[in-house]
Structure prediction request, 432 residues.
Amino acid sequence: MFFHCTKYHFKLERPQMASGGIISASGIPSVQILQRNKKVLLSKTYPHLAHRYLDPQLYLGRLPRTSKAVVNLATYPWFGVANQPFHSSQLTFKEWKQANKNDLINNWTGTVPTNDNDILQAVLSCIGFQLTMGVDGIILPSPLTNTLAGNYDLEGKYLDAAEEACKRLAVTIPVFASVAFSDQLVRGTDPIANSLLSTITAQIAARSFVNGAYLVVEQPENSGHCYNCEEGCLSLLMLTDDLSRGARKTIICNYAGTFGAVTMAAGTSIWASGHYLSQRRLVLGDSDGRAYPRFYSKGMLGDVGVEKNVQVVHSGTLRSAILDKTIDSMPLLAALASGNSVDSVPAWRYRQGNVSAGAGHYYELCKSIDDTISQYTPESRVDAVEKLLEHTVKLSGSVSRDRNIEKGKHTDIDHQQVWFNAFKKWRGYSGL
Prediction:
């Protein structure tokens, strides 16, 4: 199932495009999310969030104070930062945040709890908060795994504390262990020979109170909207396979863009993404800068640049294979077919912040990709996804060879071969 990776903006113009949402703690202060949550529960304002999870994002606990995410993260109790109470009769959310911003930043430690008692208190507060929200399942807090030296010991302590916390709080809904790892752990190595990955799966598989795993991979900055590390992609597929098929756990994958849909072949049940860069990839830096319209292609599983390349592709023989028709794209495609330019369609003009049509187009295609893969049985899904990836390689290769294509202008033509290679290696590893 496709879920929306939700940050500050909860509303979707066409909420039927997502089966639910995963709300990121970094996107909205805790005092506001609880008020916003009342609208989710008591009205039809955000119907897609009838099914929702909260990503507590403890893996961002080591961010420096200079990060824009710190102000929001510091409002959640599991980060250990003292907060002034919020009274709606005295201040608005904006006023409260502005009044307390300096304290939230100055009291941010840039660390995560490491001793047993502090870990337990953090986990208790995190689970209790999610129970108050009425989520579909609990996503457990866990630090970022970014070193081989610890052998997953600290993360294991968090799982131990979570088991105790779930007993104390009488948790009856599904529980998901967070697996947040840096791709620096696997980049330039052979993930199949990486003992840490097997340690992670063993730690989670051994705990019967854990119903599933929530997988995210931290990625480097300045590498585009589509994750293009072969070892990282292979690691996600391996973790998904070992935990779903091997340990019979339910898998949720976030921050991998539409590669999350690819992991459905390995056993992922829910994958989440969003139109903005910070919704497609987990980057520790402040990755969202200037947002411009992007035209996503289901055939390429990547974007085609709106400024020039959409028009170039439309003039070629592959336009129907690359430029998908959606509710939001049809006015643009009709204008191009009439000989007009992209700028003749206001919703698609290449202007900073003009992303509503591109976002709606992206979400409709995410649902379409999810529907396409979901129609296959688990047994036939592997063949279907491999053929899909092989097709993306051919299409992206054709676009890459077009001398009229303006390289680097938001046209994603490098990751398709990476995804295909990772998939074939995983298939060999899994024996499927």
The first strand starts at residue 2 and ends at 6.
